[in-house]
Amino acid sequence: MLIEELSRLTLTEVTECYASGRLCPVMVMEATIAQAEAANNSINALYDLQADRCLAEAEASRQRYRTGSSLGLLDGIPVTIKDSIHAAGMHWHHGSAAHGSGVEGMKDAPPTIALKRAGALIFAKTVMSDFGLSSSGVSSSHGIVRNPWGLGWSTGGSSAGAGASLAAGIGMAAVGTDIAGSVRLPASHCGLAALKPTQGLIAHTPPSTVRSAGPMARYAADLEPMLRVLGGVHRDDCYSAPFPAVHAGSDLPRRVTVCLDFGFGPQLEDEVAVVVEQAAQALAELAFEVRFEDRGFDFDAYLPIDDSLKLRGWREYSATAQNFRAAVPSQLVDWLMPASEWGEAQIAEMDKGIARTISGANALLDKADMLLTPVMHLVNFPAGDLGPDPDMPLRHATFTAPFNQSGHPAATICGGFSASGLPIGIQLIGHRFDDIRLVRTATLLEERLRQTRATQMLWPLQPKPLARQPVHGGNGVLV
């Protein structure tokens, strides 16, 4: 079965097969469409699947390879983009029925432009949670996205459909967005690799100082070619930065600080701690200098971030038509509501807290070339929940969200599995604009961990039914 072979290959290996004639883009696109049709009914990850257009584009890619005129790193590679990323002829909902039937894109966003220029085949959009403000697959516009590792478990979010589809063997890579962990959290839930780049390194619209577009893939080795295609300046993003020439050499940073406790947030589950400690041991075996930090921050750095996300969400929600708002999850609305009453004093206090968070993140990186942390404190939670904390949907993003504020690049890989067979992610954080060396370190660590496990990654190409009932966090319904 071709899809099984493709699930074992990196992007570079696939394009090498195209160049040699062993595979062709049309064959791979046909297999991708077939897998989407077979698996998406179970996981609900995709919408706007555009098979005919992509098959025509795949044929054009095949002709380029035949004539030696490939467009480069991603030519003929099937990819998806998140709902929130605009693309001409594809619909935008931002995950929420509050936007009615959605808006058909008239203009490509910078990540879409970059993918098309590189010859990538954007065959579908992926489902996200409402407004991108819960780390789950619960979307009032499309329903619940389900995790192929176990259909009763969450995919994480908000790039939920990107995570679920890749784990199920649909496509070779995806572009999501990340404002508090939204590519890294689903990567952890779904056993994938992902990168939140240095803020501004991947241009996106509307411009933001905290939200980044970021690549997701089955293997860490795929993050570098994705980053090289997506990275760089675009005139519509005033914060976008040139792709750096510095730090692109072969020497890897060697000083790693491991932090299992940021000093705030929920308590770390034992299975997660063990996986991070095993990753630290693997880095030590690879001749990295590893030290442990007892406590990352001396204050709760997440609370001002939570307020900023709340304010952002309230502004979007309150701007929508009232007759569409009833479909938005009531728990999400309840979380947003306090922001409706905030004045200048509350917002100024929030900004002061965020500045302190950024200083704290900078201080952690001052002591090392990289940080190694969990992605989240727990293994997973039920698919119908917005998050494990009913009052704070993103409270479990305490290890990821500070680095959106500080702008540091952060990569996630699968570090291991729970006793129940669910993936557990680990996170590496680097210095700003050191993204290439960060993803190369992540690739080296991923390979070492797989050698240690002495097992091949067996992707859930046929999504797994619920083996046992998940324990509810108390705020969702499993349907």
From TrEMBL:
<protein>
    <submittedName>
        <fullName>Amidase</fullName>
    </submittedName>
</protein>
<keyword id="KW-0808">Transferase</keyword>
<dbReference type="Pfam" id="PF01425">
    <property type="entry name" value="Amidase"/>
</dbReference>
<dbReference type="InterPro" id="IPR023631">
    <property type="entry name" value="Amidase_dom"/>
</dbReference>
<dbReference type="InterPro" id="IPR000120">
    <property type="entry name" value="Amidase"/>
</dbReference>
<dbReference type="InterPro" id="IPR036928">
    <property type="entry name" value="AS_sf"/>
</dbReference>
<dbReference type="GO" id="GO:0016740">
    <property type="term" value="F:transferase activity"/>
</dbReference>
<feature type="domain" description="Amidase">
    <location>
        <begin position="28"/>
        <end position="438"/>
    </location>
</feature>
<comment type="similarity">
    <text>Belongs to the amidase family.</text>
</comment>
